[in-house]
Design a protein that fits this description.
- It is found in: Cell outer membrane.
- Residues 285-590 form the RagB/SusD domain.
- The structure is a single chain.
- This protein is of the alpha+beta class.
- It is built from 15 helices and 25 strands.
- The strands form twelve sheets. A three-stranded antiparallel beta sheet has the order 11-15-24, with no helix packed on it. It has a two-stranded antiparallel sheet with strand order 1-2.
- The longest helix has 26 residues, at 104-129.
- The chain starts with a strand and ends in a 10-residue tail after the last helix.
Length: 590
């Protein structure tokens, strides 16, 4: 199968919700995704819609999985900043742990992720009824994506809806995480013979291949013990329970599937860690399964994971700016103490003429030779990683263009906050809320919080466009899964070897002699927890990790998170869903 072009289909699925949730509706939407060469059939359109759900805010918007998995964790927070980001308290609730069944973030994400289930079921029915040349492959992909969406729903909400798409009038079933995880593992394993190896049969890292299945199986086996005993008050999960299949225990299966990926030779660790999150990264050597994004007149990807942390006066181009929203918590920032030279912490940008953007007050100008595609606008490149302290960059003239020097370069100045022009844009690691229990800043405090500039910022106008593919599974994360499985089996030397390989495979910029990361001499569970954070921050995996390590419930007083009860390890079923679907029962505690 060879992917060719983007299509615009207005009538893909006309009774999709009869497959899953109560009621009948038409999607009646554009499916904007790559489809097969040749005439598009209903089955290929339906499969395209399954993949499109990944990129429709679900895994690309800060309000999607990032809000659920990072804002509820010790890594990210979105405070109210003066007149911005109040929004009825829905963002603060994610970190203050005051969310309820009517929280808009929880409701929106439930709708999005279960819509992925719906689209997958519709695709299974359409492909089964169709006669595509690669019917078996398409069907395996649709079933794999069903498992992917179902797993994430079970992880977040403890329950997931299912209706057999091949049985007319089949009853709606509500799967429970403790029971469903075993069947989900078996279902994905059964798909392996039909799935393509990445790069064969026209597939790529934006499709659910055999390698994506290995990654999903690794994740499911690692978290199986939590799913079976989610509310264990001591967080003493049985990670060495006998595996559901294949012999050994759950950790053995994690090691087995991660090793298939690591030893395949298909993937390699990027020496420049931030290449994994850069523009036009579709060929990045670590990407196993990713959301394919592009900028064109039909399908604009989302750059939300990048510009959401940028201050409003930080501009990649004269027409694109940040939003001054999310930031890093003081708790997570402090874990980097003594490790700021780690290549994953931050990286300075070098222009083609050799100019480095130091962002320390020594910069006077930058060349204007980097141009935004399709325009004559100069492109200013910020540094990457975690950014702290006074920020520098271009300012706008009254005409809305970058200030320039007399010799035609971009003038660099100390920046102030857009909504508080007397407040220097000094990103402080400390938040220091006036009320320690509420993540609220006064207008002159909106500079606070270290920022995550992990993803590269697209300079095109409108903020909402991107050519950055979003990793869902990449090789660095697979190494962390295997290291954790080794640790939970008591094989500390193997875990240490994997973590040190991650460290030393990354190198700093040439400004620092391309120095590799430094090995650590020993490892324990707390060090492993820290190291996973170094590798995986801002990639929507932290909340499940915190639960596995028994750290999710603890208070995080410097970022307004109180001690919480185990029931908060899952989110409530939205009240709107409870009102119209009596098959659901509300999760305990809500």
């Amino acid at each position: 199968m060879k992917l060719k072009t983007i299509i615009n289909s207005k009538t893909i699925i006309t009774a999709c919700l009869t497959v899953l949730l109560a009621g009948c509706t038409s999607l009646n939407e554009d499916v904007l995704d790559e489809v097969l060469v040749g005439e598009a059939s209903s089955s290929t359109n339906a499969l395209a819609a399954v993949y499109d759900r990944l990129g429709e805010n679900t895994f690309t918007s800060h309000g999607g999985m990032l809000a659920m998995q990072e804002y509820s964790s010790d890594i990210g927070i979105l405070p109210t900043r003066g007149s911005d980001w109040g929004d009825g308290g829905k963002w603060r609730a994610m970190h203050e742990f005051t969310w309820a069944p009517d929280n808009a973030v929880i409701t929106d994400n439930f709708n999005q992720i279960t819509d992925g289930i719906t689209r997958s079921l519709v695709a299974i029915k359409a492909i089964t009824d169709g006669n595509d040349e690669q019917k078996d492959l398409f069907l395996a992909e649709a079933k794999g994506m069903l498992a992917f969406y179902t797993y994430h729903t079970l992880d977040l909400y403890g329950q997931a809806p299912y209706r057999d798409p091949l049985v007319p009038g089949a009853p709606l079933q509500i799967l429970q995480a403790a029971d469903a995880i075993d069947n989900l593992i078996l279902d994905v394993e059964a798909l392996l013979p039909q799935l393509a190896d990445m790069g064969t049969q026209g597939t790529h890292n934006g499709r659910f291949t055999k390698q994506a299945a290995y990654a999903l199986l690794s994740t499911m086996n690692l978290n199986r013990a939590v799913f079976k005993d989610r509310f264990n008050s001591s967080s003493n999960f049985n990670f060495t329970e006998a595996a559901v299949s294949g012999g050994g225990n759950d950790m053995d299966r994690v090691i087995y599937y991660t090793s298939l990926l690591i030893d395949s030779g298909t993937y390699s660790l990027a020496s420049n860690y931030f290449d994994n999150f850069s523009l036009n990264n579709s060929g990045a050597p670590e990407l196993i399964f990713a959301i394919t994004q592009k900028i064109d007149n039909l399908h604009n990807g989302s750059n939300d994971l990048a510009y959401n942390s940028m201050e409003r006066n930080q501009r990649c181009s004269a027409t694109n700016r940040g939003t001054n929203a999310s930031c890093i918590t003081p708790e997570f920032y402090s874990t980097w103490d003594g490790f700021h030279d780690d290549p994953r912490f931050a990286r300075k940008y070098q222009y083609a003429d050799g100019t480095w953007f130091m962002n320390d007050g020594t910069d006077v100008s930058a060349p204007a030779t980097s141009i935004v595609a399709g325009t004559t606008l100069p492109w200013f490149h910020f540094n990457r990683g975690i950014q702290v302290g006074q920020q520098y960059g271009p300012k706008l003239t009254s005409a809305g263009a970058f200030e320039m020097t007399g010799d035609g370069r971009i003038k660099i100045s100390a920046l102030v906050c857009e909504k508080s022009a007397t407040t220097p844009m000094d990103f402080t690691p400390e938040l220091n809320f006036d009320n320690p229990t509420q993540a609220v800043f006064a207008q002159n405090q909106i500079n606070r919080g270290a920022r995550s500039f992990k993803f590269e910022f697209d300079p095109e106008a409108g903020n909402g466009t991107s050519a950055v593919d979003i990793p869902l599974y990449r090789l660095g994360g697979i190494y962390t899964l295997r290291a954790e499985a080794y640790m939970r089996k008591g094989n500390t030397s193997a875990a240490l070897a994997d973590i040190n390989l991650l460290r030393t495979s990354r190198t700093r910029e040439s400004l620092y002699g391309n120095a590799p990361g430094v090995v650590i001499p020993a490892i324990n569970m707390d060090i492993l927890y820290r190291e996973i954070g170094f590798e995986m921050y801002w990639e929507m995996w932290r909340r499940p990790q915190m639960i596995r390590f028994g750290k999710f419930d603890a208070a995080r007083p410097t970022s307004a998170k109180p001690a919480s009860e185990p029931y908060r390890r899952v989110f409530p079923i939205p009240q709107r869903t409870m009102d119209v679907n009596k098959e659901f029962t509300q999760n305990q505690g809500y």
